[in-house]
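Friendly challenge for the regulars: who can give me the structure tokens for this chain first? No prize, just bragging rights.
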Amino acid sequence: MTAPAPFLHKGGEMLLPLASFGSVYTKVWPGAEDKAPLLLLHDSLGCVALWRDFPQELNVATGRTVIAYDRPGFGRSPRRTARLPVSFVEDEAALVVALCDALGLSTVVLLGHSVGGGMALAGAAALGERCVAVITMAAQAFVEERTRRGIEAAKVVFSDPAQREKLSRYHGDKTDWVLAAWIDTWLGEPFRDWNLDRVLASLQRPLLCLHGDADEYGSVAHPQRLCDKAAAEASLVIFPGGGHFPHRESEARVVAAIARFIEKRA
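First reply, four minutes later:
Bragging rights claimed.
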């Protein structure tokens, strides 16, 4: 097994052992050692592989090391069987801190897509000054009816075995758990009142929110609420006609916006 420090500087992939969290599949695209790396947090059905070429594009455009990981239960990380608690978004902050500790990161930029955006915000609040900036893409700030309708529609789509088979290419025998962790959690009554307001009130790091105004899982009320309630500098970029995957639909524009935002940061 490669030691974390050489792994960080040389790049590659490994199952990184984290105390209390087991092993977490992690991949690194190495860059400048004097700049804060970008740590990517994936969406509800995502994993490292589903970022596709986005990490590499960020790596080239910013010159920074880019790190992505599969949350426990997803992708190439070990299985998880427990149901997600209502606090699962905020709880991810502890894993983010443990991952940064294991990799020896003194500074980091957190970037999260969809639910990963909320996790990035929670991680930024927990890391304090170690997080030099945080970026969200298509993140949810609360449970909106549009979000619930989008998930209800996706539930129908994934009742088709062919669609489940496509997802299983990335999650293998964890696919049913992955779908349930998303659908059952977000549509469950205990989750209806969830929001990120308390996290945002403690966020002291610069924030960039990227969002499409046609996002099927959340209106522009989400990034507006993130920016309005963040106790820090916040910027908002809206992509007209953009959906839930801005980094796929408008990759060049997203990468350019991120590069500009972090250019003068550590």
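The radius of gyration is 17 Å. The mean pLDDT is 96. Your move, everyone else.
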